[in-house]
Amino acid sequence: MKPFLLVSNAVRAKEIISVVARHGFVDLINQLDLPASLRLRFIDKVQSERTTWERIRLALEDLGPTFVKFGQLMSMRPDALPAPLILELRKLQSNVRAVPFEDIRPILKDAFKGELETHFTDFNETPVAAASLAQVYYARLKDTNIPVAIKVQRPNIAKRVAVDLELASWFIGQLHNRIDALKPYDLPGVMEEVKQGILRELDFENEARNQRYFNTLNPYSEHVFAPKVYTEFSGPLVIVMERVDGHSVDTSTIDPDIKRNIAAAGARSIMHQILITGFFHADPHAGNVIVTQDGKLCFLDWGLAGHLTRRLRYALADFWVAAVEQDAEEIVNIASRLAPPETRLNQRVLEKEVTLALREELNFSIGRQQLGRAMLKLLFIFGRQGIPLSRDYCLMAKAVLAVEEIGKSLDPQFDIREQAAPILKELYQERAGPNSILKHAKDFAKSTFASLHELPDQIQRIMRRVEHDNLSLNLQHHGLDQLESGIRSASNRIALGVIIGSLIIGSSLLVHSHQPPFVYGYPVLGITGYVISAALGFYIIWDIIRSGSHK
Asked: How far, in Å, CA of 129 to CA of 247, rounded?
């Protein structure tokens, strides 16, 4: 952030700095390059029994909805942040006061191009839910009397979010540049990614597309679904969707048998989303999942979704199989294949850390089965070792962790491996089954046939050039230029050596012939030949030393 922008938002900046100091981070603030107008007197560091990670979470909650959302998205980056901090950030909840309906009405009128009564009846002006970015109301469509839920963005939230994100970006940039311990984590890069995620969530059309896409791909519609979206009433600030009545998944009034079925259906759906379709709900925590009266599972809030390519899906399946088998070496090999080519890995250190993480979270001998936590730890290990895996892997790990927690709350005997097994088998059929082999064979035959089809034309073009004597071959051997230069230099020195030898012999003959004129009793021509020979000899010696050829 530019200095004048920081000063122009001084009121909000002071609020942020005060909250950060109040939670015991005075030392960090003192290391920042703050403008004079923002310098405050802080009390001594707060003494608290809370951990550093807990104090970070509490500070984000006090900073308001934008920072809560920021923390929630940061919790999806286990490759860049310590695992204890990730687990604390996952506890963040948006407890916000509802905005009065009179402030919401203008947004709805603008979205619906007229009064609400034109399209809706029984519009309840009391929100049924209030989150950091939006509020939800119940009504009925006027033409069909169908009950709907209307999700509308809070007024001026986009502007407030933009200011908070700019301040957060500046704050994190300062910490990254001034604190050496934070530099390995590339916090500015993570911040930029989180910023883009929040801005995407502000576009409700993106959320509506995700809901429709899931319902299109969902093979378990009799057990799991997302609310139907009424696109004719939806836009960037408002979503009108099917109203779904039900209970939270953690309610105690649900029959135990239904709970087990719900846990299995939810896990099976998430596994299918991740491994088969490569498109999945990235935040399926208990607040975003409800159970309908007829025992179906409904996924809400599709503002954030993950996307995995076929290559990433296949690698993920290999990851899971290797993790369950406690094969640290194979996990490291898979991660190495996904790492950038220039990455240098310490195989021994990496295998040791992976082995320890697997024993802590997937120790089946003592009943420890936490695949989601294991994936979080592995992603953090990879990130620390210079293997920046796809952001969507981070979303996947968080989704799996959420599903495991919900599953265990519904069914103490829940084992995600049981639900993943048939999905992994289906993925194997896609990857290496008869249909896959046949498809690869067809693709190979098609490309080979195309090459063979072009071969006669290529041969004919070559023969025509041979026939017209205009075929040329360009051969280039690297290093010949240096060889040619060396030969030329050696030849010159040999020629000078021959000349010097000839001058010395000729000068010696002149000296013995006693031909005048004389200098100090010696023939001038003979002495001149010696001088020229000596000069040329010294030149050759100097040239050899200068070029380094004497070494």
From this structure: 14
CA trace torsion 216, 221, 227, 229 (10° rounding): 30
pLDDT digits (tens, 9 = 90+) for 335-384: 888 777 777 777 888 889 889 888 888 877 666 778 888 888 888 888 77
**Which of 164-168, 214-218, 448-452 shows the lowest per-residue confidence on average (mean pLDDT)?**
448-452
Return the SS3 of 141.
strand
**End-to-end alpha carbon distance in the chain:** 57
| 387 in Cβ contact with 338 (< 8 Å) | yes
- Please give the average per-residue pLDDT across 472-497, as a whole number: 71
| Sign, CA torsion 217/219/224/228 | positive
Q: Given this model, what pLDDT does residue 102 score?
A: 92
**Other beta carbons within 10 Å of 174:** 17
Coil, strand or helix at 248: strand
Spell out the residues 6+ positions from residue 467 whose beta carbon is closer than 8 angstroms to its own: none
Q: What is the DSSP letter of 150?
A: E
- DSSP string spanning 494-537? HHHHHHHHHHHHHHHHHHHHTPSPEETTEEHHHHHHHHHHHHHH
In angstroms, the CA 188 to CA 77 distance is: 13
**pLDDT at 212 (0 to 100):** 94
Place of tokens 């930029």: 192
For the chain, percent of residues with pLDDT exceeding 70: 87
Q: Is the dihedral of CA 267, 269, 272, 274 positive or negative?
A: negative
291: helix, strand or coil: strand
Closest CA to 335 of 318, 355, 352: 318
Place of tokens 């963005």: 153
Q: What is the mean pLDDT of the chain?
A: 81
Amino acid identity of residue 289, one-letter, is: V
3-state secondary structure 182-237: HHHHCHHHHHHHHHHHHHHHCCHHHHHHHHHHHHHHCCCCCCEECCCECHHHCCCC
Coil vs helix vs strand at 252: coil
330 close to 318: Cβ distance less than 8 angstroms: yes
Q: Which of 492, 491, 500 is nearest to 534 (CA)?
A: 500
Task: Quote the pTM value.
Answer: 0.70
List pLDDT tens digits, range 140-184: 999 899 999 999 999 988 888 888 888 888 878 877 777 676 666
